[in-house]
Amino acid sequence: MIDKELINQLEQLAKKIRVDIIRTGYLAGKNGAHFGGSLSPVEILAVLYSCFVSFDKNDMEHRDRVILSKGHAALAHYCTLYECGIMTKADLDSFEQNGSDIVAHAKRNLSRGLDFSGGSLSLGTSYSVGVAHACKRKGLNNHIYTLIGDGEMNEGLIWEALMYAGHNHLDNLTVIIDHNHLQADGTIEEVMNTAPLEDKLKAFGFDVIQVDGHSVSELHEAFSQRPNGRPMAIIAETVKGKGVSFIENKAKWHHSSLNEARYQKALKDLGEEV
Q: Where do the structural domains in the chain lie, given as residue ranges?
């Protein structure tokens, strides 16, 4: 059972990550950022990195992996890695600047905690399954986490990878679905309805947990579950653009840029003094 002090710490970390996302995206100027999809999985990443992920630069083989199949949430990943001391302020400040390799979709850089070059949707899930299988065959006692967008689940390659994971009993794999019900072209229900996700994932050989993706206590409990010979899937119900009133549930904010007025409004929404 998670205590109140840890809940408060995780919620404060999530707030810092959201403020980092807004500030970093604003400083990118006209290049903009994927604000909507980066703001929705913040609590997921905060709980993972604070409480569960073992990341040791001196032991790159045995460490855990966090792989963003949902590559357009890279800014959320950068900000989390910064707040957890894996990436530097200089790294973060270089986001989308000329000559930087800290860009909209992550480029693989193991020293910065970036295992996968994101971008093409669905490939990260297949990569994660391959990594999980390789680690299991090596007898490594680590864990592979992959974050999937619910719109991304329109891709057939996702389901091939999940079928393979279930067939091979990859209990060192946890997939987290950022289920915010909104993709660039509209709602999941309008574009390609993937419901019922829980039934589908169970049929593919996964143990499935559904949680409020903005509740750090529910996420902590879900990640605490021990494997029982099957891969785990966590369906996290989230809000795209969570925390910023004019971005929440707006498809046009999948990728956009902030002017000064909107930047100030976003910070106020997140409880920052401006």
A: 4-269
Q: Are 35 and 244 in contact (CB under 8 A)?
A: yes
Beta pairing, strands 186-187 & 182-183: antiparallel
Q: Are 239 and 171 in contact (CB under 8 A)?
A: no
Structure tokens at 23: 């500030």
Per the CB < 8 A criterion, the answer to whether 42 and 267 are in contact is no
CA distance 73 to 76: 6
d(CA 21, CA 39): 7
- Whole-prediction pTM value? 0.97
Q: Which amino acid is at 182?
A: L
Determine if residue 240 is left, alpha or beta; phi over 0 gives left, psi from -120 to 50 gives alpha, anything else beta: beta
- Residue range 4-269 forms a domain whose CATH class is alpha beta
Please report where in the chains the tokens 């999985």 appear, as a residue: 41
Phi-psi region of 2 (alpha: psi -120 to 50; beta: other; left: phi over 0): beta
Task: Kindly tell me the sign of the dihedral angle through the C-alpha atoms of 84, 85, 90, 94.
Answer: negative
Structure tokens at 112: 């910065």
Give kind and range of the element (H or E) at residue 183.
Answer: strand 182-183
According to the model, what pLDDT value does residue 227 have? 82
Predicted confidence (pLDDT) per residue in 92-128, tens digit: 999 999 999 999 999 999 999 999 998 889 999 999 9
State how far the Cα of 25 lies from the Cα of 58, in Å rounded to an integer: 31
φ/ψ of 67, rounded to 5, equals -120, 125
Amino acid (1-letter code) at residue 35: F
Rounded CA-CA distance 113/88 in Å is 11
